[in-house]
Amino acid sequence: MEDFYVTIPYGLLLLAGGVAGYVKRGSAASLAVGGGFGAALLLAGALSAWSFGHGGGGAAAILATVIQIVCAVLLTVVMGIRYAKTRKIMPAGIIAAISAMVLIFYVYKISTGGNKVYTPVSVE
């Protein structure tokens, strides 16, 4: 499975969570952080998909990987610390757990060589 199949839904989840935090509690911080991380991950997913469609590799793939890893590490650590302090599952515990799982997936993808090279199937 290619990384953008995880990155794009992960980015949408964070973006939706930021909007939900703003609508429900009026938290501008939730909107800024959720929107910022969500937008960064959507950009990374788009770069990764574009790179995959154009033969893989290159600067776009490297930039996408860096954005994905940095976002997942930051969210895992920051939300994990927040969960440890507050013991509130929502949102800190859930975001920390999801981010940790996504980070494990990214590390797996890097260790297995990243996205595979796209080879179109010809109809003959």
TrEMBL record:
A GO molecular-function descriptor: fatty acid transmembrane transporter activity
One Pfam family per UniProt: Tmemb_14
Primary residence: membrane
Keyword Chloroplast: no
GO cellular component, one term: chloroplast inner membrane
Subcellular location: Membrane
Ligase as UniProt keyword: no
TM ranges: 6-23, 30-52, 58-77, 89-108
Swiss-Prot/TrEMBL keywords: Membrane, Transmembrane, Transmembrane helix
Family according to the record: Belongs to the TMEM14 family.
PANTHER family, per database record: PTHR12668:SF45, TRANSMEMBRANE PROTEIN 14, 15
Name of the protein this chain belongs to: Uncharacterized protein
Lineage, broadest ranks: Eukaryota, Viridiplantae, Streptophyta, Embryophyta, Tracheophyta
